[in-house]
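Issue 218. Parser rejects a valid record. Input:
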Amino acid sequence: MPGAAVDIVLKGGNLAGPTQLWTSFPAEAALSPDVKDNGTNAAQVTYRITVPEGTPAGIHAIRAVTPTGVSKPVLFLVDDLASVAEKKPNNSTGAAQPLTLPIAVDGTVDALSRHFYKFSVEQGQTVSFEVLARRIGSPLDPLIRILDATGRELAYSDDAAGTMGDARLCHTFKDAGEYYLELRDISYTGGAGHRYRLRIGDFPCVSAPYPMGAKAGTTATIGFAGSHLRDAQPISVNVPSDPSIKWMPVAAKSADGQSSGFTVLAVSPQDEAVEQEPNNDLPQATRVALGANLNGRFETPGDIDRFIFKAAKGQRFLFTGYTRRQGAPTDLHVRLLDAAGKQLAIAEDSGKNDALINHTFPAEGDYVLEVQDLHRRGGPEFSYRITTTPYQPGFDLSTSGETINVPAGGTAFVTVTATRRDYNGPIEISGENLPEGVTVTPTVIGPGRPNAVVTIQNGATAAGAISQIRLIGTAKIGDADYRAVATATTAQQGLFSAMPWPPLNLAEKVALAAAPAPNFFTLTSDPATVVLGPDLSATVIVKANRTKDFGEAIALAVEPAKAGLPPEVAVAAKPIAKGKNEIAIVISAKAKAPLGEFTIVLNGTGKKGKASSSQAAPGIRIRLQAPYSLSAENITIARGAKAKIKVTAVRNPAYTGPIILTFVNLPKGVTAAPATIEAGKNEVEVELTAAADAAVGIVKNTTSQGEGLVGKTKIPGKSPAFELTVQ
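Output the parser choked on:
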C-alpha cells in the first residue's frame, strides 16, 4: 500500500544471504527485522517494502538477489487496499473467512477446493469485486460467485472482458446484511502456484485509460474506460520525456472512493488524436493528421468511427491496433477507404494482437480509416488505440531469456530472434546499461538468419547486484540507421503461465546478475573472428581454463545443436581431451554456403562423478567470403605489339593456393600468354600480344577469369570488366 510498510515472504531456493530486493516501482526494501534469523533460510526470506505515497496502483515485478544471482520475476501488485491472508479451512459458507470491507485477500487455491468469504454491506451499497490471477502470472482460471445468506447466487463472473481470463464484477446490494463470496478455479484445478489476489472495495472497474496513449513530455488529462466506472475521475498526468519509457501505470478512483482501479498508459513521441462524435458516417469523419495515433471508443453497440486524413502518393504507413494487450476488450475490425468509400485494405486480428494494415497510398488525396468492433459490441469499456507510423524496412527482436546469471569469470548465453520486414541483411547485436566488468560479445545475426546466440562474459562484477540491461540490434538499411530493442515478452509468456500479454512496461529489459564461478572450467577461443568461404575451412583454438581439481574431458558442441550454424557450414567439434587444455576445431563451408558474417557459439560440458557443468566459449564470428576476387587495370596495346597487364587477387585468408588465369572477350587478334598467380602470391603480370591485323577499337567487357583448386575442387573467380584498347 502506498505510504505504508508491508512484509512480504518469498519462498523458493538459494535465498540465503540475500543482498537486494529489486522492484520495478519506486520503493524501499530491507530484510524484515521482525523475523528471527531472517536471511539465513535458503527456502524463505521476508522483506519489508515501503512504497512512496502517491505511487499509482498497478501490476509490477519484484526479484530477489543473492550471491547465487537474481531470481525470475514475480508479479507484484501495488495496491491501495489493505491486505489480509486467506485463512484455511474456508471451504464452505459455514467456515467462510470474515472480511471487513474494503479489503484485499492473498491466497492460493488447492485442487478440488473452493474458498468462501463473508462480508456485510449496507442497503443499496455498490461493491466492486475482482480476482487477479492470470494477470499476475498464476495458472488459476478464477470464477467468483456472490451469494446471499441462504446460498442463492446473486451474481457471478468468469473471464471478464479485458482481464485476460480473470474475474471482475460490480454489484449493488438491495438489502443490508451478510453475504458470501465463493472463489474457485473454473476446472477445480489447483496447487501451490495457483495464487490469487481478491480485491473488494469501491474501486471503478477500469479496463483501459482513455485516451489510451499520451505524447511524451506533455501534461495530459486522462479519463478511463471500463464496465463499471463508478464516476471515475479524470487525472492529470505528467508524461515523461525519457524515450525508454513507453508505458506508465495510471489509476482511477471515484469522486469519494477509497480504492483504485488501475491500468497502463501508452507513451509515444507522436501526437495522440481522439475521435470526435458524431463520426459514424463518411461526411462526419474526424479529421486527423497522418502520423498521429488514433484513439476512440465505441459508446454503443454497432458504433462505427471514421478518421479522415490526407496522404501523398507513394507514402507507406502501418496502422497497428492496441486493445486487448492494454486491457480493453475491443476486438478491432479496420478498413482503409478512399475518399469515395472504396475499400483499399481490411484487417482483423494479427495473431494474438489486434488489426494491422500495411498500405502504400496510390495517389495524393484524402483517405478514411473506418474502425468498429468485430462483433459490433459497444459500451464505455470498448476503447481502442491505433498507432500510425511510416513504414520502414527493418526487424523486431525478442530474447529467449529475461533473466541472465553470468558466472564470475565465466560466460552465459541467450538467443536473440529477429522477425524481419523487407530486410534480409546482417543485424549487429550489442548490449546497453551493462555493469562494470560485464561485456556482450559483438554478435551478428547473419544474412537471412532468424536468430543468433549471444554470449555475455563476467570479468569483474561481484555477486549480489542486479542490472537492467538491454540487448540492441542495429543495421544499415539503405541510407538509414535502424535500431530495435530485444523484448522479453515471449520468455515472460512461458514464465507467467502462458499469459497472452505480459506487463508491457517489463518488455524491453533483461535482468542480469553475477553468479558464482563455474565449478570445473571456463572456455576461450582464438581467434575471435575466422574467415573462410565456399569450399574452404578455417581453424579456431578452443582453450579451457580448468579448476585445480578438474581434469576430465570437456565435450564441445554447437549451441543450439541443430540450428546454431548457417546453411552449408559444418563444425568438426571434438572434445578437449582429459588432461589437455585446448583443441583445434575446424569450421568448413560447402560450395553453396552463403556469403556474409555470422556468429556461432561452442558450448562445453564436463562431468566429474555425478556432477556436471557447462560453459560456453565467447561467440565466434565467422566471415564467409569468396575464396578470392580478381581485378585488372585498363590497358592499351598497339597492333603488332606486346603489352603487360597486371592482374591482382584479393585472397580470402583461407585460400592460399594457385589461381590459373584466362581472359574472356579479348578483341579479335589479341591473345594472352598462360599465367598463374602462384600460391601465396597476390598478383601477376600477363603478357598480351596484338596481331598486326588485330581489330582496332575499345572493348569494354573484357574480364579476367580465375580457377583455384582445393583438393580436387575447382574454385572459380572473375574480375569486373575492364577496357582493352587496340590502336
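Fixed in the parser; the record now loads. The first strand starts at residue 5 and ends at 11.
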